[in-house]
Description:
Strand order of the largest sheet: 2-1-5-4-3
Low-confidence stretches: none
Strand content: 15-25%
Amino acid sequence: xxxxxxxxxxxxxxxxxxxxxxxxxxxxxxxxxxxxxxxxxxxxxxxxxxxxxxxxxxxxxxxxxxxxxxxxxxxxxxxxxxxxxxxxxxxxxxxxxxxxxxxxxxxxxxxxxxxxxxxxxxxxxxxxxxxxxxxxxxxxxxxxxxxxxxxxxxxxxxxxxxxxxxxxxxxxxxxxxxxxxxxxxxxxxxxxxxxxxxxxxxxxxxxxxxxxxxxxxxxxxxxxxxxxxxxxxxxxxxxxxxxxxxxxxxxxxxxxxxxxxxxxxxxxxxxxxxxxxxxxxxxxxxxxxxxxxxxxxxxxxxxxxxxxxxxxxxxxxxxxxxxxxxxxxxxxxxxxxxxxxxxxxxxxxxxxxxxxxxxxxxxxxxxxxxxxxxxxxxxxxxxxxxxxxxxxxxxxxxxxxxxxxxxxxxxxxxxxxxxxxxxxxxxxxxxxxxxxxxxxx
Length: 441
């Protein structure tokens, strides 16, 4: 950033210097041209006032104007355009000047001016012609550098000025960038300080955004670290149990009457391990920014009824009755994820219920929004735990959760699916009364 500011300041300085030099050169060259024309007109009028070229019986061979006016060319032209005299070239060698624009203007209007450019000499020749009283024309001329020549002649000075300006700009730009960047660096170093005020009012939104992002990144890093630790712990428990039972069976220390029990324990822990791994994989997929999911119009009530039918056997095994009610509600979503959301909520309602309990799955339209409600009359959730039940691996009753095969990730998956569908989830629960979870699409 500092280098970019320095380069741009130097670039601006070079453009400013070149623009100023070119502009001033053009302005002064125009003034220079005017001064030359004025000097030529004065010289021509002075020569006219001497009546030198109007004397009767003047001997052209004796005319001499070379002394003191080497830079001024004087040409005397007769009425028919014939050159009578020229102080630079012999008049006999010169062509008829009747076709010269300044001569024609002098014969017609009394005064004529012209500028002719010489690309080879890189010069301009200025002409001024004046009609004399005897009908002849007196023309004076002088050479001057062209605009390009004037500019090129000043190029070394311009180059020195540019080098000087660049040197000054480099020093100033380093000072400016240091002054500009320093408060930003201080601001960045104080991102964790909520009381720190930005040195520039314009940076306050950026400061707040950076502070929020910094906080979110730290929170995400901590959540990922906690998740890794929890995953390690959750995977270690069933693996340790499987390893222990397998070692006992391998050593032959288990009687025939207990082998089936050990085999059952190994299978139970293996099933728990598979369920845990599947939930972790699902969470990882949902954590991706680009899910690559296909959304379509689906009937929420139809999907809910399908889930109830599939989980009816599981509910019967737990001595829990399950029913569905509601009406057709069309939502825009991913059918597989919606089905997984309902299954997770219903499985929790069955898992944390009491023998003889009830689970009700309802789909209705509330305030123009499709609403899914999964309600049970089970053990309920204490108020202190209700804010954390959607966290990964958080269990209200850790012993019961593991005993019933819970992974502690079901509601975390539900929360992700709700966020992907821009929906809203609410929980209403009381210990010994039951739990109702509502999802509004």
